[in-house]
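Practice problem: predict the structure.
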Amino acid sequence: MSKLIALLLLFGGSGVMYHVATSDEFRITNVRVSGNQLLQSSELEAAAAVIGTNIFWVREEEVRRRLQTLPAVQSARVTAFLPNRLEMRIGEYSAAAVWLAGGAAWCIDRGGRVLGPAPPGAVLPVIRSADPAPLQPGSQVDHEALGAAERLQQLTSAWGPPVREFDYSADSGLSIVADFGPRVQFGDSSDMEWKLVALAAIRNELQRTGQRAELIDVRFKDRPYVR
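Answer:
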């Protein structure tokens, strides 16, 4: 009798396991994403690759690792809920600037890594690159350009609204179009205080003499240039 009961329990358990493994009731159809700003929920769902998967086969740690292959994702928390729901809480890297290149706008972090397309209305410094080469998430741009832009913003904020738009080329570094007309080339972030003092002196001299300039180059401490 006891053997019969054991066999019935075995077959019953096998039936339950078969039902759990094959029933559509336990296939993930509901994915909820929160915490994302740079990335679209559809991008995260595609990276997670769980839609249609039996919830009992999902390994939350594996899904988390897949999500963190996306350059913008700093952290991810993944939780499965019966019968068919997966929740993903995303922590993204902080965007420090918008980098314009190849006709597209990208958010970059302080290390110069491209995180993803810039969302509309992003309130960040804008750096226009002369390099037309297209970028993609995970690409690397010159982080020194961002460092120079941030330093220039810090130093000019005491004079009025900080500069928010910059131009960049690999040859000449960072430049801006000054409020009094000429383009000003700053290069990198070194000696930025001296560069601004030199710019102020050149501007005063131009005003005193009534002259106009197209270009002011203060990249080199021993030879500022005016054209």
